[in-house]
Design goal:
This protein is mainly alpha-helical. The chain folds into three domains: 76 residues, Dna Ligase, domain 1; 84 residues, no CATH class; 137 residues, no CATH class. It contains 16 helices and six strands. The strands form three sheets. It has a two-stranded antiparallel ribbon with strand order 1-2. A two-stranded antiparallel ribbon has the order 3-4. Helix 10 crosses helix 11 and helix 10 packs across helix 14. The N and C termini lie far apart (136 Å).
């Protein structure tokens, strides 16, 4: 049998057409792939926080990104990751992407593990009420929900806190919050950090000082509120330690307003006469719990106060304090530094008129 002479040119023609079609398809795919890599789907206005769960496949996560319109094609993203050898190197976590990012940047962040966190800083001395206000102000947590967790008895038992709240045991520092973190989760994080620092830096020396952990933290919280200048913390601590030894009331202004309002340096006659369990103008010894969350400097001062005969201090206009040993010296300092700048309660200290009877009893 002899093939028809026209068959070979026709077959050759079909092969050429097929080759052209394949070539065009490849060029189209390469062009599409190139556009995918160089042209993000938007301008960056569409921001999304997406959770890449531990154990989740990159393909499934890419589909989620495509649905969120962060990338234009899930399949091409997975192909790109495989071509780079990064498909097995991506790390789990929450990521913040926007539709103006190129796939290379998205993949780079995932390989580097640059997960999305909300950075939250707690200043030294802030009370649980002030922390709650900060969280609410940044729209991280509801104020009342956070405070409710601070008083949660099951959480207190879990964390080994003997008081009626977490006050004093939330270490002031900067924390990274993930989108799935709860108020209880943040409290646990801060409490664990407090325990680490306290055990490492202070536990042994606190025992040698003859004070319990709770006593140290209560005193440190008062020192933190009273001291404007860090270098005066040991002096302020010495005043309170001296008064405790003599059985004198601490008469600390911040304790008079704890649980009522934030201490801003001023108290009134109504404040110091208000009957609360924390008001050291009306109660003897330490209050029943801390009035804030002290930092390392205040805890150090509570454990290792300066050795002084001081029983009083009064604030000067520059934020420093005048320290006195006798009531007469103190009263002269009050007249000098306070009455000329707004009255005797513009920034009072440990010690007012009733001190003469106390000193007489001590002598």
């Amino acid at each position: 049998m002899i093939d028809h002479p026209m068959k070979f040119p026709l077959l050759k023609k079909y092969r050429i057409q097929l080759l052209v079609a394949i070539t065009l398809s490849l060029l189209f795919l390469l062009a599409r792939f190139g556009l995918f890599l160089t042209n993000p789907p938007g301008t960056g206005k569409n921001e999304q926080i997406i959770d890449f769960d531990q154990g989740q496949s990159l393909k499934k996560f890419a589909v989620t990104m495509e649905k969120c319109k962060v990338i234009s094609n899930a399949g091409l993203f997975v192909l790109y990751a495989r071509l780079r050898g990064d498909d097995g190197r991506v790390k789990a976590g929450y990521y913040q992407f926007n539709d103006g990012m190129k796939p290379a940047e998205i993949l780079r962040r995932m390989v580097a593990g640059e997960v999305y966190v909300l950075r939250f800083s707690v200043p030294e001395g802030y009370s649980i009420y002030q922390i709650a206000e900060l969280l609410a102000g940044r729209r991280l947590f509801d104020r009342d929900v956070f405070l409710r967790e601070c008083f949660s008895k099951p959480l207190l038992r879990e964390l080994g806190v003997s008081g009626n709240s977490m006050e004093g045991y939330l270490y002031p520092s900067t924390y990274d919050l993930t989108p799935d973190m709860t108020p209880a989760g943040l409290i646990r994080l801060m409490s664990v950090q407090f325990d680490k620092v306290y055990e490492r830096e202070f536990a042994d020396r606190a025992k040698k000082a003859g004070m319990t952990k709770r006593e140290i933290i209560i005193l440190a919280s008062i020192i933190e509120k009273e001291a404007v200048r860090p270098e005066e913390r040991p002096l302020i601590a010495s005043v309170f330690r001296n008064r405790l030894r003599r059985g004198m009331p601490l008469q600390s202004d911040p304790t008079a307003v704890y649980g009522v309002r934030a201490f801003a340096g001023n108290v009134s006659k109504n404040d110091i006469s208000r009957a609360t369990p924390y008001n050291t103008y009306l109660i003897g010894g330490l209050p029943p719990g801390p009035i804030g969350n002290p930092g390392n400097g205040a805890i150090e001062a509570a454990i290792n106060p300066a050795t002084t005969p001081y029983l009083y201090f009064v604030a000067k206009k520059d934020g420093s304090h005048h320290f006195s040993t006798t009531l007469d010296e103190h009263n002269n300092a009050v007249r000098k530094y306070l009455k000329s700048s707004g009255g005797p309660f513009s920034r009072p200290i440990a010690g007012h008129g009733s001190e003469r009877k106390i000193l007489a009893a001590v002598k």
